[in-house]
Structures are given as C-alpha cells and as structure tokens.
Amino acid sequence: MSLTFATEERGGTIVVHLSGRIDRDATTAFEEVAASTSAATDIELVFDDVDYINSTGIAIIVGLLARARSRRASVHATGLTAHYVHIFEITRLSDFIEIVQPADA
Amino acid sequence: MSDEPRDAVSWAKKVDRLHVTDEVKAIGYNIEGRRVAGPQQGFGRLWHRISIAEFGPTVSPQALVADWRAHFGSYWPAGSRFHGGLTGIAPGDVAPLEAGPVTTGILVLYADDVSFTFITPEGHMFAAMITFSAEETEAGTRARIDILLRTSDPIFEAGWFVIKPSEDRFWAGTLRNLAAAHGVHHPAITQTTECVDDRRIWKHWRNVVRNSGIRTVWHTVTRALRRPRRSSPVA
Which residue of A has its CA nearest to B198? Predict the structure, then answer.
C-alpha cells in the first residue's frame, strides 16, 4: 500500500498522520508532506498506520527532518513500534526526532 | 503497525559502538569503537546524489543485487579496496575500506533482495547513508546508487569541490564494472546532485578530531613505532 497522509493542526503543532509503506514510492508523498508543513515550527509524525519502512524510507525521513531543521522546526514521532524505534536509534535519527511513546509503554 | 515486521531480518542489530573482526583489525583502526554517523551527525550541506545505470533485460533486479552483494568490492575501480566478509554483504557487517589515501569503513545497515544500505562511522569523509538498489523499468533492469550525505567536518567540506568529481568518477566506474560483469558494455549512466539543506551544522565542527584522513596519515607515519621489536639474539 503506497503512502498517504492527512494533516491537522493541534495547538500550534502540525500533526501528520501517515498510512502505508515508507519506501522509494513514498518520495512524492513526503514532498507533499514537506510542502504542507513548510510554515510549521512544530511537526508531529504519526506512524500508527505505517506498516513498513525500508532504508530508502529512512533516507526520505532524514530529508524531511533536514528541511525542518533548516528552518529550526522541531519534529516528533509517535506510534512507532519497538522495531522502528530500534531503527531510529541505530540510524541516530532519534538524536533529532523526539520519539513520543504512549503513556502505558 | 504490526508487532512482527517482515523486514526485521533485513536490518542490522543495534550497536552503540562498531567493532571489526580480528581478520581486518589491522585496517579497521578508523572504525573500531566508533559510533555510526548518519547525515544529521555531519557538518556540511546535505546532498542527495543519484547514480543510475541502465542494464537492459540481461539480468533481473534480484540477480543483479545478489551478485552485487556477493562481490561488492570487486566492482570498485582500481585504487580503492573494500574489506568485506567472504560471504558478501549482510546486515550488521562492519567493513573497513581504503578509498585513495583515506582508510575508513561502513556498517551494513540494511539488506534485502533488491537493495542494501550502508551507514558511515564517525570520522568518515561523509556522514551518509548509501543505498544500492536495482529496479525493473520498461527498458529492463536499472541499477541505482542513492547517497544522502553531509561532509563530516570543515576540512572535508573545504575539499568538497575536489571530492565530488572524484566521487562521480568512482561510482560511475563501479556501475560500469558491474555492468561489464553482466555483459553490458558502455551502459548509459546518469548522475544528479540535489542540495537538500544548504545550511551547515556548525556545532559539529568538532568532528574534525576524528577526521579519517588526518588519522590515516598519522597511523601511517607512526607505523614504524608500533612494530614489535625483534628480540636480540642470545649471545
């Protein structure tokens, strides 16, 4: 399933609900995410409905993070499983994206 | 998200520090004990570089990547050497490499049947993720190298105008060697470079203390001092 997304504003934060796979085919969707969050200073990426991320997908997320960083916006991630938290840690994405775990995690 | 991702075996296990095997310890001095350094741990501008070669219908993407993983270093142009494992590229491998005058290495971050990805250690000339892949197109199989990189420190950033054309030649040469091994001579190769973030990360200027170029020179000039002394003959 290719990646789709929906955005909402919640208390000054642009929340981006991601759904599907994050791989090379997600490039265009992430360009649209970057465009729709280009004025945001606080971005939350919601991974609840993401079922697959490969290494190209991680590189795409790095690109989004870099664009956000270039205008000093902060980025948070929620809904990551333990496996993808591990991936964010091994790639050291977690140094720059705050990973928000559910309260009962 | 599912609790049992199907891609779990494709990823390296988490490591805080990289370690090389005993077989390559002598050449792994610029990676042993280092952490990985992805693009956001680098210093210079963020670039997305793509090299593409068209292979036509002679080989499937899966067969091409299987061969690329098995013989990765043998497709490098002369003058550079990759000290990978005998069984090829596998997730979690830590491999030293010699690129011209610089000794450094990589961690195999990810590998599946149509792609594999390296991430660089601290001190490498780039803080980067490098993905090698193959895909099916209307014209046949396309081999592709995607590099998302920042130079690691101000010294490498100052040398970017020299490093970039050298890198262009290196990866084009690799793709030509790979193509020749599959019976494709003079493949069409295209290379593009896009600046993703034109701002440097100045707080990372201290990465220079791990600069693999400087450390390789230092390692080379002090090699004689580290040689074990011969024992004196017994009178």
Answer: A70
| Best B18, B197, B198 residue to mutate vs chain A (most A CBs within 10 Å) | B197
ipTM of the complex: 0.79
Scanning the structure block, which residue is given the tokens 């550079």? B80
Is A48 an interface residue toward B (CB < 8 Å)? yes
- Nearest CB among A66, A83, A89 relative to B8 is that of A83
The per-residue pLDDT for range B5-47, each reduced to its tens digit, is 777 889 998 888 999 888 888 888 889 999 999 998 999 999 9
| Domains defined along chain B, listed by start | 14-224 (3.30.530.20)
**Do A89 and B2 lie within an 8 Å CB cutoff?**
no
Task: Give the helix ranges, DSSP H, for chain B.
Answer: 61-70, 154-158, 160-181, 212-221, 223-226
* In-domain check, residue A26: yes
